[in-house]
Amino acid sequence: MKRIRIVLSIILAMAAGIVMAQTQSLNAEQKARVEGWLVKYQPLGSDPTVIAAVKAFNAQPPEELSGMTQDKWAALGSLSPEVRNLSKNALAEYLKAKREPVIAELFVSGANGTKVAFFGKTTSWNHSGKPKQDVPMSGKTWIGPPELDESSGRITVQISFPILDGKKAIGTMVIGLDVAKL
Question: What pTM was estimated for this model as a whole?
Fold first, then answer.
């Protein structure tokens, strides 16, 4: 029994080391590919369908989500009505039609950082106060570091950009790119 624990400890340590090594940084070629994906997807930030959905959300968020907190969000299953409404709404379906294999996750947040639509349940309900939300809300793009994404289970690099109504940021889109598919 003691040997099994030792072997399992070694395996877990090795696995953690591999994940840490993969999440440290991107090489120059990977960085260039990430920047290329950002350039490719950034026009969605001025897509009329995306803008209309975010404007509608900002004007009147869904009533069933009005009391949502991070704790309540974490307790929801992926098949809960609240989650399904965000992964099956018109904007989510519109964006799924543009999905490519490199995309591990995608979510759209309103001006307040809460979710408008996504491909699958996100780890966090609200990204306000985090660079992936705050930087694009200032009108700029953002590229995060490689990390193990809890919601997709993959090592990803997130890119984020503003949803613009004219020149005003009204929300954000975050796309998690699967590092293994760059």
Answer: 0.85
